[in-house]
Batch of 4 targets.
Target 1
Amino acid sequence: MLNGKVIVLGVTGGIAAYKAATLCSRLVQRGADVHVIMSESAKQFITELTLQTLTKNPVYSDTFDERDPSVVSHIHLADLADLVLVAPATANVIGKMAHGLADDMLTTTLLATTAPVMISPAMNVHMYTHPAVMANMETLVSRGVGMIEPGEGLLACGYIGKGRMEEPDSIVEVVERFFSERNSEPAVKLDKGGDHSMEANLLHGKKVLVTAGGTIERIDPVRYITNDSSGKMGFAIAKVAKQLGANVHLIAAHTDEAPPADLNVERVGSAEEMYEAVLRQFADSDIVIKAAAVADYRPAQVATSKLKKLGETMTLELVKTTDILENLGQRKSSQFLIGFAAETNSVEAFAREKLERKNCDLLVANDVSQEGAGFRTETNRVQIYDAKGLVLDLPLMAKEEVAEQLLKLAAERLGRRSS
Ligand code: CTP
């Protein structure tokens, strides 16, 4: 899968640096040419010799360690890379990247490269949730840096929470998916035999606002309520909309995977943050697609410190969140509004009721109890409704194909409206 791909692997100084050895080994086994750059503090956790032996390439850490006089090392590696992956990425390197600092070989290479960049953060849970770190990560994501979110569990510092570097096998999967998506044909293949140049421009000049993922409603600094949304459907819509020529604004809450590489993403956490972000973009949007799974309720109180275990039972009071889609339905003027409905029964009845209540132009309904449909799958099986009833009943297909059909329908209807 990774044959011939040059991956520059940045290893920074956290305990998870020990996982870099397995990561190197897995990437090399899959055919990648891996060049490691370590930060000085990473060397406290793992040796250069280990990574050099696994990659069969020299390991760099000193910007001024010029081994080949015909090239400048950090520029050479930056140019050579098909991907720069920083794993583990500490809070420190994330901060430096966000602010454009270049005080060692890795951060200098990161500034010099035009290759896609992914990071796999690893740190203590409080560091991870610190507003400064969060803001830095949001900055990076908004610049198109791929984020391989850390997992939750027992951290090396003894805390349980989010911050554990994703396992090397999962990182390799993300990297492979990234390259296979980049190598695949553009997804614009509607109406085969039609005028493809026109289709590629179907949404030219249109602003498409897409929401994706599941919102996170905090209980305390280490706990939250979320849902099973992976963000895949919203990401597929954003990606295809861009291929169709649209100016895409993607607002993503919690997701399992990195967003499409060349899109600007605005990261949000809670339903309330998503609401505010959506409102900022709504006025000049042409098409608004609410694929996100927004929490209907959030904790009435958010504890500022970790809640302690007190009794045999615990009651959490929840209050309703703003229904963003319904709110947009009331505000809309020329915007073409598309909602989603994930149901487990009476799909048509619920879908049509939601479409009317939320004043949508189209509503995409899926029965998430069916195999291959809904959350976390690569495929979906949907019906698309308008105010008069069923418009499209699509068979099981890849989420990108669903996105194509949906966007084509929206573009046609928008075109009809303006003509
Ligand atoms: N939605 C929203 N804001 C909310 C809840 C939902 O914008 N607070 C949007 C979702 O993004 C989706 C649509 O509304 O496009 C339908 O979401 P769903 O959860 O199925 O609908 P609800 O109105 O919450 O109905 P219920 O949970 O009772 O089925």
Target 2
Amino acid sequence: MTVQKTIKFRLTVWYLVVIAVLLIGFGGVAYVLLSKNLYRNLDASLRARSEEIQKSIKFEGGTFLFDQKVDELVLIYNADRELKQRLGPNVEFETIGETVKQALFGNASFVSAETVEGPYVRLYAAPFNVDTATRIAIVVGRVPNEILSMLAIFRMVILNSAVLLLFLAGVGGWFMAGRTLKPVERIADIARGIGEGDLSRRIDVETDDELGRLASTLNGMIGRLEEAFVKQQRFVADASHELRTPLAVMQAETSLALEKPRSQEEYRGALELVSQEVGYMSEIVGKLLVLARTDSGNELLNVQEVDVAGLLTELSQDVEALAQEKGLHLSFGPMDGLTVSGDRVRLRQLFLNILDNAVRYSPAGGTISGSVVRKDALAVVTIGDTGIGIAEEQLPFIFDRFYRVDRVRTDGEGGTGLGLSIAASIAKMHGGAIEVESQVGEGTTFRILLPLAGPPRKPPTTILPNP
Ligand code: ADP
């Protein structure tokens, strides 16, 4: 990265530009004000001098006599605009004709005029009535040397201090920008150093400003990545473990069967066991496939308007036989006619997983209830049971993959620990969520919240066409 591209450089340049503009602005205004003020004073003294001359002037012997001062320029013009008398250096002005004319008309005015020889002179031309019939113009002039040198000094001071100020501002700005941006470099260094393996590292910038917030945002992101990474690792480990067990069972069973010649019944028994394990494995693999698809976002949803109450009623009929077999009672209602936009097959799978659990974890004599009601813009599907319940400390984990509250308790029932995580994924794909409440020994209630079909909502990111 070249220096010109760094924020530090750009910040410093901007800083300098702003300061330069301010300096030019203030310096210019101060210069103009000072110069105006000095000229105003000069003009006032010229006018005062002109009045003095007017008071003392006398016309005697064809010339005007007045109280004269050394080093001054006084020009007296007659009514015909002819220079009648001069006091001071013999200089000629090219541009004061109009001013003299105005004075002879009775209007006093100032003019800055250049002499033919060079120096620039400030002049005041005033009318003077010698008698009722004769008016002359008295022009008093002064070379504003003092003003010019004062303004030159002022310009030099302003210019020198501007250069010094800009230099100091540049150095200071560079240093300050560097200091302010130091944490950014630190953040970049640490972020560069964080690899897949050490997601436990965090950025230790703890300032209470935008950079501190950036660091904590990045830390939050790394934290989520770490969590996802650990989850993924655990998932792979769990999946391998889950698949290893039936494989080990099959291997042991087949080795035993092959050890010596067996009777037909014995072979049949061994094959039945193998078939059962294969069935279990293919169930797990099938469910893993669903989860992998929903995770990757490649699951193609066949979105349509789904009547939730209709779907739940249909499912209740499906599980009725199973429930009766276990001595369970089904009680469904109220069933509001609500429509959601979603994939009917997936939603069916969601409800079935939860209904299946309700049947599985409820002892004989229990009741399984279901209802569909509207809450704001949501369809709330409630599926409850009066089963064994789930301890409070287990509740946060039941949607985790392969999580079973009690493996011994449920292994016999053949649960894979994937049913609820699939249900949660499907709900998420539909922009919904699942809530659960449970009391050990009393039962469990699942509430599935799904956005109602209606005006277009943000589509779940998972609805993507299969490549
Ligand atoms: P499984 O296939 O083992 O049922 P799930 O993901 O569907 O896996 O459920 C996770 C765990 O949550 C289950 O092992 C079970 O212990 C508990 N669970 C789920 N639903 C219920 C319920 N209705 N009553 C009691 N426990 C339940």
Target 3
Amino acid sequence: MTDSAASFSKLSKLEKIDFIASSFFKEPTLAKNVLQKYWNADEKLQQLHDDFIENTISNFYLPLGVAPHFSINGNEYFVPMVIEESSVVAAAAKAAKFWKTRGGFSTRIIGQEKIGQVHFAYNGASNELHDWFANCQSLFREETAFITKNMKKRGGGILAIELRNATDKLPNYYQLHATFDTKDSMGANFINSCLEQFAAVMRREADKLNGQLDVIMSILSNYVTNCVVEAKVSCSIADLKDKGIDDPELFAKRFKMAVDIARAEPYRAVTHNKGIMNGIDAVVLATGNDFRAIEAAAHAYASRDGQYRSLSFCELTDTRFTFGLQMPLALGTVGGLTSLHPLVKFSLELLKNPSAAQLMEIVAATGLAQNFAALRSLTTTGIQAGHMKMHLNNILNQLEANSEERKAVQAEFNGKAVSHAGVHEFIDKLRQS
Ligand code: MEV
């Protein structure tokens, strides 16, 4: 075991599977069968997935669902969502349908700027560093020209390159802080390549300084404070009337209080934002974007004034209800997985092949829809009522219930709280009788 473990990455896919199955499973054949069941019969497609990461042994499926009814800036969308949690797609669709007849979602891009930093130590006089940096400016641009050429043709490139004195944070700590326009790509490779080239220039030119300069690292920042989108819905308070919203004025006030609680109280804000991310991550995944980057940025942004708060806001006037969301979303619609993964290509085509800005708008609207649906349920019926149907279905699937058993269980648990143990017991009794 130790030999194979040490050289695991060198083994072939089948050898890896043999090793894993025989080392960690009571029934190796069963373990191998599970992995193989999830392979794609189309060998080329399987190879494509094998090559996305390292040491691939199988595929891990997540459902791809579609939330219809989204009207965003007057355009209709069927939004693809990849998520394992039941009720999320239904909730998005329900909220989208509600808002479709009340003006739909309106969105605006606040910025699309990306950020990268070269972090370095310097122990000399900062005014001298300042002058040296000014002299390097043209070199930074000239020596990255081979990287920026194509991006420039697409209208993007390096925006600004600044020296930042960060010695108030850490002794001798300075940054080259650069901003970029990466057009429709997320731009991680582009930014990191530029930064490493800046760093190479800095290292080479460092002998012109009296102090010592040591480049520690060069990397993009996922905290994209100027790559921000806003999505909003708004209608007259009277128009909020709907099934389960008999008193729209009261609903609007309680809804606003729920949002305000999430602005004031971090314990609630985290769950509130988690609900927003249910929608955001699902579209981000479906469109082949990096959901870890999106998550990291969203939560840092939610804490930007020093306290973790809701990403959404609610405003009421005497007659009008407005609900909105503002958050950073560094997304791409070209590069990365977008042209490689067939389902990502499918999702983007379903969304009418959006630009990165349009995708930011669609994703933000989905997050807002999700948040609206959650708060509507929470402040009216409670969240469990909607979840119970799906929950019951999942339990019935697990227990491999046949159609008669399903009918009997549904009749028994109609309007009642559903628990796994309760359904199990009921089905056991049915099966015994
Ligand atoms: C569950 O995935 C998400 C909610 O908890 C969000 C919320 O509480 O606002 C329902």
Target 4
Amino acid sequence: MEGRVAVVTGASSGIGRVIANEMASRKVTLFLVSNEPAIMDALTEVRVHSPQSLAVVADVTRVDDLTKVVDQVMEAFGRLDILVNNAGITRDNLLMRMKDEEWDAVLAVNLTSIFRLTRLALKPMMKARYGRIVNIASVVGATGNPGQANYAASKAGLMGFTKSVAAEVASRNITANCVAPGFIRTAMTDKLNPKAREAILSRIPMGEMGTPADVANAVCFLAAQSSGYITGETLHVNGGMYMG
Ligand code: NAP
């Protein structure tokens, strides 16, 4: 991966931040994207290993922001080798109570924005005849989950989207894959009460939650040049709670 240029969305916190740091330690030049100014703290970390990296505050649901992201990457580095679509949100509710806004918000960030950014990123990748696209899905895209009809639909949709893209661009030496995390220790899961945590752990054969580093490791594997014959796949990182 050394010398490659990667865009990572949702890199200000959680899993995205660790993916960015892991790639930086492998001498990848990063272009970090998030909706919050906190992205500049993430950039400071990344620059320890990858000093030329850049970051921008951009809302992935805004078409203009996405266009600017790809334009800025090409202007700064002249190439875009790796795209990690990691930004994602939840708006959980039982279906009977789910509001249109909760459905729309999740689909906009978790699926529509990825369609748009991937379409933009494919232009330079097709021209260069090289690309690695890694989309962060979720185990619930494969299993479903009560209270997460919107989120599960977005992540299942992402897997279908990824397979279609993979088939379309394979001849150009561009791969598209998903990494589907199970329960990962992040700010979100830290807030779980002991009972909920116990219930989750009882479903995980490994007996513990994963770490963002476990996910980042899988992303780096699929983003490497040497993974060029793997495409349209979903790599599950879930301690055995679902075996696809
Ligand atoms: P997180 O800490 O909340 O990170 C989400 C990132 O997405 C943040 O950097 C956030 O940036 C960014 N983001 C959200 N909306 C955005 C928007 N409109 N425009 C630009 N950036 C936006 O969550 P995480 O747990 O690390 O999750 C990362 C990915 O892993 C998500 O796709 C999630 O669905 C998936 N996942 C997580 C788990 C888990 O257990 N944590 C399990 C399965 C899958 P700002 O808030 O700074 O704008």
